[in-house]
């Protein structure tokens, strides 16, 4: 049976706000973000005959968006602006020892097996909320590196930041995400 756009109407409608929220992390102009989401949805509709169902539908559409965002970011390199982290560094040094390992009292509490978590869609909803509540510059760098899998050098080139600044921002993003996930997911799971 061949996939038709009508059979995926509800999926597209449910996915559109999530695609837009994710795109706004990378594209501050809402008009451009909406255009990219529209292009993604159109490409997905046109490509439904090639959608095999081996990946989840959402994952497949996000991969289309990912490629469109990477193309957009590469085209925007010329108009880049100076990128400065807007976060406070206080408290970070106390979490690690001289060998850059976690101090005993700073180790993340009650982390589950990653494969088990991957299967829990609620976890990813919490993760999305945590990511969307990061400062915009931090969320953008994290998404470029971890979700769009750009190399550090390309991120630095696109955003006009130093490699050291990029790694600092990524480190802070991971710490903030860890804290948010512990409060919104892991600690609730252990109390359940």
From TrEMBL:
Positions of the RNA polymerase sigma-70 region domain: 12-78
Keywords attached to this entry: DNA-binding, Sigma factor, Transcription, Transcription regulation
Listed GO biological process terms: DNA-templated transcription initiation
A Pfam match: Sigma70_r4_2
GO molecular function, one term: sigma factor activity
Residues in RNA polymerase sigma factor 70 region 4 type domain copies: 126-177
Keyword RNA-binding: no
Entry annotated with the keyword Transcription regulation: yes
Assigned protein family: Belongs to the sigma-70 factor family. ECF subfamily.
NCBIfam families in the cross-refs: Sig70_famx1 (TIGR02943), sigma70-ECF (TIGR02937)
Record-given protein name: RNA polymerase sigma-70 factor, ECF subfamily
Species annotation: Neptunomonas qingdaonensis
Source organism phylogeny: Bacteria, Pseudomonadati, Pseudomonadota, Gammaproteobacteria, Oceanospirillales
